[in-house]
Amino acid sequence: METNLQELKDWQDGARRMLDREIEQMREELEQKTDLLRFLEVTGELLKKIDRLNSELLEERAQRQAAEVKLSELNKLSVGVARKSPQDDILKAMRGYLKISKRKNLAKREAAKMVFTELFTSAQVAFPEDIMESLSHLDDEQTEPRVVNVAGNYNDVHDNDSVGINEKKVV
Question: Which residues contact 95 (CB under 8 A, 6 or more apart)?
Answer without folding.
Answer: 130, 131, 134
